[in-house]
Amino acid sequence: xxxxxxxxxxxxxxxxxxxxxxxxxLEEDLKKVQVGTRDVQVLRDEVETLKNVLNSPVRRHHWVRxxxxxxxxxxxxxxxxxxxxxxxxxxxxxxxxxMLGM
Length: 102
What we know:
The protein has helices spanning 16-32, 38-55, 61-80, 89-99. It is an all-alpha fold. Helix 3 (61-80) packs antiparallel against helix 4. The longest helix has 20 residues, at 61-80.
């Protein structure tokens, strides 16, 4: 759906401090999940990747936006797999959607 593509320049900037707080909370919740499935590991990897982007000296909002989209999509996979016990999945999905202006 090429018509759905938005110009990254048109997207509102993301509050990077909010993203950092969200990642900290998500990381803590992920530590509580004992299930070692592929979906949960992919979610952990996406969180770590976005943390690295935020810790980079060059911060690009579209990289953060892409990372949030990836985390949101992976969360949906975890939820679909019924593995989101204790993760408060709906809270994170809603919060990421709000940050992305969805």
